[in-house]
Amino acid sequence: MSAWPAWLRSARVLTGLAVVLAIALIALFAPLLAPHDPNEQNLISTFLPPAWLQGGDAAFPLGTDSLGRCTLSRLIYGARVAMTVAVVASLGAMIIGAVLAHIAGYFGGAIDWLIGRTVDVWMSFPPVILSLILMVGLGTGLRNVILAIVLVDWTRFCRVLRSEVLVVTRRDYVAAARLVGFSHWRTITREILPATLPLLITLISLEMGIAVIVEAILSFVGMSVGATTPAWGQMIADARQYIYDAPWNLAFPILAIFVTVLGFNVLGDGLRRTLDVRLTETQRA
Amino acid sequence: MSLLVADALTVSTTLEGARVPVLRDLSFALAPGKVLGLVGESGAGKSMVGRTVAQLLPPGFAVSSGSLAFAGADLVTMPGETRRALLGREIAFIPQEPLSALNPVLTIGAQFGEHLARIGAPASARRESMLAAFEAVHLQGGADLLGRYPHQLSGGMCQRVLIAFAFASHPKLVIADEPTTALDVTIQARIVRLIAEMQERQETAVLFITHDLRLAAQVCDDILVLYAGRAVEYGPARKVFAAPAHPYTRCLQLANPAMHTRRALYALPERMPGLRAYAAITGCAFASRCPNVIEECRAAPPPVSAVAPGHRAACIRSALTGEIVPATEPAAEPTAAHAPILGVENLTRRFTSGGLFRRSDFAAVKNVSFTLRENEFVGIVGESGSGKSTLARLVVGLEAPTEGRITIAGRAAGEPGFDAHRREHVQMVFQDPQSALNPRRRVASIVTQPLEAAGHLGWEARLARAGLLLGEIGLPADAALRFPSQLSGGQRQRVNIARALCAVPRILIADEIVSGLDVSVQAQLLRLLAALRRERHFAMLFISHDLSVVRYLCDRVLVMYRGEVVESGETEQVFAAPAHEYTRTLLAAVPPDDPAEVWEGLRAV
């Protein structure tokens, strides 16, 4: 027996956590880490390759783009948008989804029906189109990107959690809590939520990865943060036109997205394996 | 010439680096056409014997010494192919859970056909043999049955199908592993009867694994009593039952409530040592719980000695076994003159199912009326689906009645503030402690939940209160900080009871709270309930399918059948002279206390 909880001893969780924390720290200390201002243009040295290739410049470790902006600095600043969206949007989606899921699963009946059908209708819109429409309506900006993702993705939480809440609500200890005089609020927060929390945490880490991708899609089509804020999707969009002249400009932001999403997914998968009671119970049996 | 012979059979597994014998020095012989009962509580190793015969031991378990011979050939050293040829043909099984033993996506006919093909029946004769087999196990509508899926049949019918499977190959040996445990009482006797009938007709030997000593005494020729993987007593069934030589057998017998008279129960303390404790046992495994224990018992394992011809026991003081008697219990006060505390009038609960157009209406509880007096224990008996649990949920308020009136301590349901009033007076103990205790709370937090609901006590005060409650229900004080998963089944059920008692209720509703527990643990809980009744003076509605338990605990009894109360009255009276046909069926389904008596339930198929 170790003092560490089981989920902290899993290799998957540790790997995922290391990747995610590293990116979060980079985002946090972007002004200290970035060699240049991400929007500083240097029209004399455009399309510089990475420093280690022929014609590279040590001042621009990962080269420059069509306007001579430092790719590394833009990547570092781009992590800020990605991480902010990942954390805030998935927390927001989680809160809406989880609250509705607990209400639906716990009270059942007409409330459950209403919430269930709303989720059905909501989910029948193609998610990318829905977020694009929302962005057109709301206008660009970090806050609106987050709002768009929250409005699209809360259904995912709601649907998965509802069935879990339903299972827990049928446990006798929930009935017992009601019989000893627990209010509905207390029953949900003290008896049901602790049981659904592991699933909630797992879903959140997976949702963070999804949020990074959705943000990249939106900024790729120019529907995310404004042109002055560097974002990975935007960088891909810029580099796309010069794909034959400067392929590395396309490769680096794609790699950044890939690593970030992989980190979140590995973390989520590790958490699911260690926290999901059903999985650990079958192992024990 | 015996069919199945075990000689000093030992099955071991590796636990934390050490070899632990799960079955130790087991010797028995089963003659063709005879029935050998393997009796013991859960964890005694009964099923392990069956699995050893089939060589279906779990990974890590292996026969480490001794032999197990079937018709002269050693099953342990036999090549896998030979053994597989035996299984299903010469050796057949009747499982515990009939529903999970059948494949849900194949029809009965497809599964039976597959089985017949395996045992080598010619394809042309299969249909005939299937129909004949169904006929033999008294299943109606054979041809129709072939096209059915398992979920379309009742549990009893599934078990009949499996019995037909088992006997289809005219096996020499059938292993029945608790074949009736998962079934309703009224069906149990019929299934036992059917196995006995098939066994007689085909002269098959049966290894009958059960936890019910009374049942074993009825159906078996010989009995082998197991305790912690060791054989403690072996002999002719009636002799073992009439004069047990080992204290464990005697205690098991006394832990089972009698049907005819109300006598004190023998509550064995604690429980059987688990696998991990095996290594520490130097002498007799039963020594820690034995009322006749002396120093010598702990020194060396007791030798198996004959107490009568063919009757052996592993006890050095077997002569004293007959002197074990349960501690006397004061009788409960008569309650006939007490004031009523719960009144139920014409209570009905209907459930509607189906969609908008095809609604079906089903009354789980129909027009039920009764009263419960202060400090009175009333039993509700009936088989599954009789509406017992729904009635309990109606009384505590987890379900709302469709019609009828509930009155608790002078106030009727529907009056303002009734819910709070009901909570003060009524508490419920749930059936399955696994589901009724939040696995993420500590015991102290669970038992003091009613205080948390009131919301005015700190953790220190709750801990102190938990200590008092745990003392009252007989749990050690250090259990307070444990999680439910760290407790045994019996201990969990005590926690379950303690939570209900914390609110100091006047009425307890107990829904099947001792079913699924071992007999010795059940006896502990029943004695506990009887003692709590004398100290706390609460009334109780005790729901159970086990008539003997109700017989022991309750003053009055209500018999429910399909949602209606078909008979009610003083327990003594109802049990002695049942008026309703259904009550008679229920009573006949329980094996009699004395194996010499004729078991009525066995005669009617």
For the largest beta sheet of chain B, what order do the strands appear in spatially?
A: 6-7-8-3-9-10-12-11
* Quaternary class: heterodimer
The CATH homologous superfamily of the largest domain in chain B is called P-loop containing nucleotide triphosphate hydrolases
Chains forming the largest contact? A-B, 17 and 23 residues
Describe the sheet with the most strands of chain A: none
Regions with little confidence, pLDDT below 50 for 5+ residues of chain B: none
State the CATH class of chain A: Mainly Alpha
Give a structural overview:
The complex is a heterodimer of chains A (285) and B (605). Chain A is an all-alpha fold and 285 residues long. Chain A contains eleven helices and no strands. The model of chain A is unreliable at 280-285 (pLDDT under 50). Chain B is of the alpha/beta class and 605 residues long. Chain B has 24 helices and 22 strands. The radius of gyration of chain B is 26 Å and the shape is globular. The chains are: A mainly alpha (285), B alpha/beta (605). Chain A binds chain B through residues 171-173, 175-183, 186, 190-191, 194-195, and chain B through 396-398, 420, 423, 427-428, 430-432, 435-438, 440, 449-450, 452-454, 499, 502-503.
Features:
heterodimer; A: mainly alpha; MetI-like fold; elongated; B: 605 residues; alpha/beta; Rossmann fold; 2 domains; eight-stranded mixed beta sheet; six-stranded mixed beta sheet
Task: Summarize the helices and strands and which ones pair or pack.
The complex is a heterodimer of chains A (285) and B (605).
Chain A: H1 11-28, H2 30-33, H3 71-107, H4 109-123, H5 127-138, H6 142-169, H7 172-179, H8 184-220, H9 232-240, H10 247-275, H11 277-284
Helix pairs in contact in A: 1-3, 1-10, 3-4, 3-6, 3-8, 4-6, 5-6, 6-8, 7-8, 8-9, 8-10, 9-10
Chain B: E1 4-15, E2 18-30, E3 35-39, H1 46-54, E4 61-70, E5 73-74, H2 80-86, E6 91-94, H3 98-101, H4 108-118, H5 126-136, H6 142-146, H7 155-167, E7 173-177, H8 185-202, E8 205-210, H9 213-219, E9 222-227, E10 230-236, H10 237-242, H11 247-255, H12 295-299, E11 305-308, E12 311-313, E13 340-353, E14 360-373, E15 377-381, H13 388-396, E16 403-408, E17 411-412, H14 418-425, E18 426-429, H15 433-436, H16 443-447, H17 449-454, H18 459-472, H19 489-502, E19 507-511, H20 519-536, E20 539-544, H21 547-553, E21 556-561, E22 564-570, H22 571-576, H23 581-588, H24 600-603
Parallel strand pairs in B: 3-8, 3-9, 6-7, 7-8, 15-20, 15-21, 18-19, 19-20
Antiparallel strand pairs in B: 1-2, 1-4, 4-5, 9-10, 10-12, 11-12, 13-14, 13-16, 16-17, 21-22
Helix pairs in contact in B: 5-7, 7-8, 18-19
